[in-house]
Design brief:
The complex is a heterodimer of chains A (745) and B (658). Chain A has 745 residues and is α+β, with helices and mostly antiparallel strands. Chain A has two domains: 304 residues, Beta-galactosidase, Chain A, domain 5 (Distorted Sandwich); 288 residues, Glycosidases (TIM Barrel, Alpha-Beta Barrel). Helices cover 16% and strands 30% of the residues of chain A. In chain A, the strands form ten sheets. A ten-stranded antiparallel β-sheet of chain A has the order 9-10-11-12-24-19-18-15-16-36, with helices on one face. Chain A is globular and about 110 Å long. In chain B, the strands form six sheets. In chain B, strands 2-1-23-22-21-20 form a six-stranded antiparallel β-sheet, with no helix packed on it. Chain B has a four-stranded antiparallel β-sheet with strand order 3-26-25-24. The relative contact order of chain B is 0.06. The chains are: A alpha+beta (745), B alpha+beta (658).
């Protein structure tokens, strides 16, 4: 009989052979590649330069007034001495007139209807009839009538058919303006409308506390002064500004029926499915009537997160172009009655979304009456609210950001295995190499540093994975290290959260994106604070939030999207320094911004893409673009970064991206530092030669001299020409070759 | 057929990285044949702006950067240059659905309403009208409703038509019907084949008629059809399918176009664009199926696609009456340059390595680099790249070369060593006869035989030469035990797993990353036990003489061919090329066949059956296995439902009450 020893040895031998054989099968490696990345340069075709992918040339025709708006029948309420604006109101239907006393230009919340009079010089028999009572309505709402069997949203104007709403108006004593208690004609829904001038401009408010339903009639949406800033066809040269992606314009022209509607800050995931289209990134919009002459720039001080921006151009039925916001308090939703969702009922949201409506309309003239002016005005506004937007300290060169993937995990026969893509030591080597090549200031944003690597671990950020190595190796002057995280995402198999932390929609379902739950931001912040206390003891002081561009409501612990904004801003105070990825305007207070939007959604009705976001941030924030690894047209993208004052960003690993094929990071298709090293240095140098001259400065003028030929003038007097086209251009003595830039000091 | 994926803008994998400068993702083929992300291949470059409106346009043709549009709703043909200069060429047509211009600048129009093909010269004088053919080969009942028209070398005219199930119609330059080609193949299901075997009268299967077509410079015909299998096909002049590229979306392609260096483009009505190389390998697929949003780069109803002289794409949107331009990116230009070099027989490694650096998982780049290294004689490097590209044919060719070099260098040495070892063996044997030098080994061997388990395991050798006797000894003389049988089962299952993991690349089509060892382990052992159990069950009911223990042990010993031949097979898989696949597959066949034969003999001997009883027992055993699996599946589903129910109650309680 074989002794037990020998049986044990036999079993061990088999086990070792088996383990070795199986593990060998998974450890086969790919031969790494060497040498440099070459890029080729192809200029855009003429059609592209004239498309809405770029900014077009301006029509600088002089505009003295909007003939469809006069002061007739309007009462003078007063002039604000800070802004030099005068406010007029119609006593019977509360329509407004604002006179910019500096220029004499009159803005109106609705049009005069004298143009319909055959005696009027504006009369045109081809003009369609209009619903005058709707036009003069200061407000319109939509509501649900719960007494009806089918839940249909109905629209109601203040002057609705044969019915008139009522209001009680009381003028303010201490400021120019009034308060009106509004009662809608059919539904009886009430709310208070406040209109007044102050140093910010014209304020229009509807406080949440004043909005009252009426019996079976439940408020759904409110729209205030929908015709404010109207123009007529293409009579007045100018455009509307839409904060779509990086920024977009719709110029007034003869083409009809160009309609646009989009929710601010992206869809609410508890209501809508995600979309691949770029979002409205800021709670602002504007209209320019006479470029460089008159503009109305609207800031949604509150309520944007629950609002949508709507543009309606002139059409065969309407001769006016209108741009306005509408705000949603309530919507209907589908309530599932069983787990499979085959049985459902439609219900109306019981409680209103909590937010105040607060517009600030700024009336601008001269150089401020352009999208560049809008950006400067908005920056000043954000600064006045103590947002961290101080001018950048001067330095000799621009920084570089490296998004670095440290650890990932993949499936193996024995479960999941965490493997190293880049260790701390390698990161140190990378930064040494780059600094020796003249890149003095480097930001490194490390992904997957936490236990078990990048994927399927959020929100467990308590510990650094030991495979990463000693983080102190990376510390050196000029290198600023950030640790990336997505604290509001919770993988279904991860730890550190409870099911009560998960956001629910109105139907009480847990909200998730793929295999990640969305966490309540308060709960997520508590978890983050707990982890950060631990991490800071290990030397982690800077955090990068990769989930910044996500805002949703919660119907578990009821929070509206508007209420979520101040909570999200608190994340920026957790660590010493914070970085955000692709943020909306409310997170511009972060210390560093990366993955800034560089395009608009290019809706067909847009005529231009304009760099509104980067104009706000230029000179006042370190702003990095998207990872250059993924550029398809490198030279074009580099010129865009020069044009927009955006710094370079690369996604880097030590190992080849082929190793990520069977992981959740399989969308990274090129990242090896060895392959990209020389290109990183080249691109940084290329951008540095332009942008190092304007560190701390911002654009005060942006002119399109020819399609694809841009002239940016900075606050420190430097001028940078950018030529996207395949033609050489001259501006005076300055010659700019195709596909290049020129800096004039 | 894969289905195109869309990656949401939210970081579902905790990555907030922006990959695209367009409203759609662009994919290419990665190493495992799956779609992988890549740089944006074509970016939206705006609408072609012109001073008129198109109404329901259905066809587009480009020649010398001039676009010819079948403006169907307006019953006319128009010409537009890339600056937007608009010219109406023909009006008052019936329902022009197809337009084409040949190398002599003659214009062809397919008119669906009037059922004609009309041909015009450069000044729009009517030259010829082709109506329904009267030739007998066309057929009496064949419909002639022309939709699209093209012409090829030697003036041959190709026409697709509604209901033209026989394929593309061919006419000569005089308008005489020549015949059909590019007929779509039909597929008969297994059920239908069985019915046909029993001479059932069935309705004939008619193939789907081709929708759209394109002709390349060599006269090959490309068609798109509404078929699940091969919706895009390239036919040679003998009407044989030479290329049938994979289609990566569920919507059928509505048009096909071939550029001057042979790249093939298709577009679907949902706006998904595919680009392939001349061999039908996918280069890029991109687009977004969202008809409601009016965004540049996204289409309402894309019906045609062409390329201009700069290889930018021009797409006709029938739904909006628009023509959109998609500009080729610099990255795509790199790929095109590489392909053009390849077509000219120039294998430039650096071009493709550059592409590979910009996208490490671009399978075509790996494949081309592999081919290049092969041609330059660097077979070792070529092996590596072929493996990444999953190109087994190339890998085999390279491996043959490597092996050949190795054998050339070392075969003599091995032979010499082998001969020397042989001589030593013979000499030692002779010495042993005289001096018994092997006696300690023989004694040890005999001592091992005294150990019961070793003796039982050695019985496995006998099963090859005397299977019946072996099973007889197992049943009647107890020469094997449950322990030895269990060891054999364990070895079988382990070898089963190792065979998947360690078989050489050429003969291993398993995907290691998705292979679950534990599941495989359990299922292979499970099937064996299921057989043992079912066989014993049936034989108990049908007068079988074997006990459960006998069946258990007998089945284990019947696995001996697998146990003994798998390891050599694994080793051979690393030494053979595809030239020797016949040998490899033969050994595989012998191994498995022998194993099944031994199982049959085992049943025969253990249960002492006659031949008829044996057949009946085996069939019933298989049936029983199926029934047991079905019952277990049912139980699993019920248990799963119960688990879901209980766990959801617990979750509700935890969330709402606690």
């Amino acid at each position: 009989m074989l002794s037990k020893y020998k049986v044990l040895i036999a079993i061990l031998t088999v086990a070792i052979l088996l383990f070795t054989g199986v593990t060998y099968a998974y450890l086969k490696d790919y031969t790494p590649l060497f040498d440099n990345v070459d890029v080729t340069n192809i200029p855009p075709i003429a059609s592209t330069l004239r498309s809405n992918r770029y900014t077009q040339q301006d029509d600088l025709t002089n505009v003295s007034n909007n003939p469809y708006i006069t002061l007739t029948d309007h009462e003078f309420l007063g002039t604000d001495t800070d802004t030099n604006l005068s406010l007029y109101v119609h006593p019977e239907h509360l329509s407004l007139r604002i006179v910019n006393e500096s220029t004499g230009y009159i803005w109106g919340s609705n049009m005069d209807h004298t143009y319909l009079d055959p005696e009027s010089p504006l009369y045109n028999p081809a003009n369609p009839q209009t619903n005058i009572r709707q036009d003069i309505s200061p407000v319109s709402i939509s509501f649900y009538n719960t007494a009806q069997t089918t839940l249909v949203r109905q629209t109601e104007y203040f002057f609705d058919g044969a019915f008139d709403g009522s209001f009680v108006r009381q003028d303010f004593d201490d400021k120019v303006g009034f308060r009106a208690n509004i009662r809608m004609p059919r539904s009886g829904i009430r709310f208070t409308l406040s209109v007044y001038l102050d140093q910010n401009g014209l304020n229009i408010e509807v406080p949440f506390s004043s909005v009252q339903d009426s019996g079976n009639f439940l408020i759904s949406t409110i729209t205030v002064y929908r015709n404010f800033g109207l123009t007529t066809k293409d009579l007045i040269p100018g455009y509307v500004f839409i904060p779509d992606g990086i920024g977009a314009l719709i110029r007034y022209d003869e083409s009809m029926s160009k309609n646009f509607s989009k929710r601010f800050y992206g869809p609410d995931l508890t209501l809508n499915t995600p979309t691949l289209e770029r979002y409205l990134t800021a709670g602002v919009y504007g209209t320019v009537q006479g470029i460089g002459q008159n503009a109305m720039f609207t800031i949604l001080e509150s309520g944007a997160a629950n609002g949508s921006l709507i543009y309606q151009s002139h059409s065969p039925n309407v001769i006016f172009n209108k741009l306005y916001a509408t705000f949603e308090y309530r919507d209907k939703y589908i309530q599932k009655l069983n787990a499979s969702g085959t049985s459902t009922i439609e219900r109306i949201q019981e409680n209103k979304n909590v937010f105040d409506i607060h517009y600030i309309h700024k009336f601008l003239e001269g150089d401020d009456a352009t999208y560049v002016g809008f950006s400067n005005v908005y920056r000043e506004h954000l600064q006045s609210k103590d947002m961290n937007l101080a001018p950048i300290v001067q330095s000799s060169s621009i920084p570089l950001n490296l998004d670095i993937l440290a650890l990932e995990n993949r499936r193996t026969w024995f479960g999941r295995e965490t493997f190293t893509m880049t260790s701390a030591q390698m990161i140190d080597t990378f930064t040494d190499t780059l600094q020796s090549q003249g890149i003095e200031q480097i930001y490194t944003t490390i992904h997957g540093w936490q236990t078990n690597g990048l994927s399927r671990t959020s929100p467990n950020y308590r510990n650094i994975d030991s495979k990463f190595g000693d983080i102190r190796q990376m510390e050196k002057p000029g290198v600023n290290i950030f640790y990336a995280m997505t604290p509001r995402f919770a993988h279904i198999n991860a730890t550190s959260y409870r099911s009560s932390d998960i956001v629910q929609n109105q139907g009480s379902e847990f909200m998730s994106l793929d295999d990640y739950y969305l966490l309540n931001p308060n709960r997520a912040l508590e978890i983050l604070n707990g982890h950060y206390r631990h991490l800071s003891q290990k030397g982690i002081t800077n955090l990068s939030f990769e989930d910044a561009s996500l805002i949703y409501s919660d119907y578990n612990e009821i929070i509206s999207r508007t209420e979520m904004i101040p909570i999200l801003q608190m994340y920026l105070n957790v660590a010493d320094q914070s970085m955000v990825s692709a943020p909306f305007d409310y997170l511009f207070g972060a210390d560093v911004i990366k993955e800034i939007e560089l395009y608009s959604s290019q809706r067909m009705i847009f005529t231009d893409t304009v760099p509104f976001l980067t104009l706000i941030l230029g000179g006042h924030k370190q702003v990095f673009g998207r990872s250059s690894n993924f550029f398809a047209n490198t030279q074009n993208e580099l010129l865009r970064m020069v044009d927009y004052q955006v710094y370079p960003n690369f996604y880097i690993t030590n190992e080849s991206a082929q190793k990520l094929l069977n992981t959740d990071s399989n969308m990274i298709f090129t990242s090896r530092f060895l392959d990209w090293e020389s290109e990183i240095i080249r691109q940084h140098q290329y951008l540095n030669e332009a942008l190092s001259h304007v560190i701390g400065a911002h654009v005060i003028s942006r002119m399109v001299l020819e399609p694809g030929f841009i002239k940016n003038t900075y606050s420190n007097g430097v001028v940078i020409y950018v030529n996207y086209s395949g033609n050489d251009y001259m501006d005076g003595p300055v010659s700019v070759s195709a596909l290049s830039y020129e800096v004039v000091l | 057929m894969f289905v195109l994926l869309s990656i949401a803008i939210y970081p579902s994998s905790s990555q907030a990285v922006v990959f695209k400068s367009a409203p759609y993702d662009t994919y290419t083929i990665g190493p495992n044949g799956d779609l992988v992300l890549t740089q944006t291949a074509y970016e939206p470059a705006g609408l072609l702006v012109f001073d008129d409106d198109l109404n329901d346009p259905q066809d587009l043709y480009i020649k010398d950067d001039l676009l010819y549009v079948a403006d169907t709703g307006n019953r006319r043909i128009v010409k537009i240059n890339l600056e937007g200069d608009f010219e109406v060429l023909l009006t008052n047509l019936g329902e022009p659905t197809g337009v084409h211009v040949d190398q002599n600048n003659q214009l062809y129009v397919a008119d669906r309403l009037y059922r004609t093909i009309t041909i015009y010269d450069e000044t729009m004088n009517l030259l010829q009208t082709i109506s329904r053919p009267t030739e007998p080969i066309f057929g009496l009942n064949t419909p002639f409703v022309p939709l699209k028209v093209a012409s090829g070398p030697r003036g041959v005219i190709y026409v697709t038509g509604e209901g033209s199930v026989s394929g593309v119609m061919q006419f000569n330059r005089h308008g005489e019907f020549l015949g059909f080609l590019a007929t779509n193949p039909t597929q008969r299901s297994l059920y239908r084949q069985i019915l046909e075997f029993f001479n059932q009268d069935l309705a004939p299967i008619t193939p789907v008629s081709p929708d759209n077509l394109s002709i390349d410079e060599k006269g090959s015909v490309f068609t798109t059809s509404r078929t699940q299998a091969m919706p895009l096909k390239k036919f040679n002049i003998a009407s044989r399918i030479v290329v049938a590229p994979n289609h990566y979306t569920e919507v059928f392609p509505s048009a096909v176009h071939v550029n001057d260096f042979g790249n093939i483009y298709t577009v679907t009505e949902s706006g998904i664009v595919h680009e392939y190389d001349t061999s039908g390998n996918l280069l890029f697929v991109f687009g977004e199926a969202d008809a409601s949003t009016e965004i540049l780069g996204i289409f309402n109803r894309a019906v045609d696609i062409v390329t201009d002289s700069n290889y930018n794409l021009i797409v006709l949107d029938r739904g909006r009456g628009q023509i959109q331009i998609l500009e080729r990116s610099a990255f795509t230009a790199l790929v095109h340059d590489g392909l053009k070099s390849l077509n000219q027989g120039i294998y430039n490694v650096s071009e493709w390595e550059n592409i590979l650096r910009m996208n490490s998982v671009f399978a075509l780049a790996n494949s081309v680099i592999a081919r290049t290294y092969f041609r330059t004689g660097d077979y070792e490097t070529a092996l590596n790249y072929y493996e990444i590209a999953q190109d087994r044919t190339g890998y085999s060719d390279s491996f043959w070369q490597v092996r050949n070099s190795f054998l050339t260098a070392y075969l003599g040495t091995f032979l010499a060593i082998g001969m020397a070892l042989g001589i030593v063996y013979i000499v030692l044997n002779q010495i042993d006869k005289k001096y018994a030098i092997y006696k300690p080994i023989r004694d040890y061997n005999n001592k091992l035989n005294d150990i019961k388990i070793i003796r039982e395991l050695r019985l496995g050798n006998k099963v090859f030469r005397h299977p019946i006797d072996t099973f007889h000894e197992i049943k009647h003389e107890g020469k094997a035990s449950v322990k030895s049988a269990s060891i054999l089962y364990a070895v079988y299952v382990i070898l089963n797993v190792l065979a998947v993991l360690l078989t050489g690349f050429l003969f291993n089509t398993n995907s290691l990353e998705s292979y679950n060892v534990l599941t495989s382990f359990l299922s292979s052992f499970g099937i064996l036990m299921l057989f043992v159990f079912s066989n014993y069950l049936i034989s108990t009911l049908s007068s079988g003489e074997g006990w459960f223990k006998d069946v258990y042990i007998g089945t284990a010993y019947a696995l001996m061919p697998y146990i003994l031949m798998t390891v050599p097979l694994i080793l051979l898989s690393h030494a053979f090329t595809l030239n020797e696949i016949f040998i490899y597959q033969s050994i595989l066949f012998i191994r498995d066949g022998w194993m099944y034969l031994l199982i049959v003999l085992m049943v025969l001997e253990i249960h002492n059956y006659k031949f008829r009883e044996l057949i009946k027992n085996l069939l019933l055993t298989v049936f029983t296995m199926v029934v047991i699996v079905a019952i277990m599946l049912l139980i699993y589903l019920l248990v799963n439902q119960m688990y879901d129910y209980i766990s959801s109650i617990i979750k509700e309680v935890v969330n709402r009450v606690i």
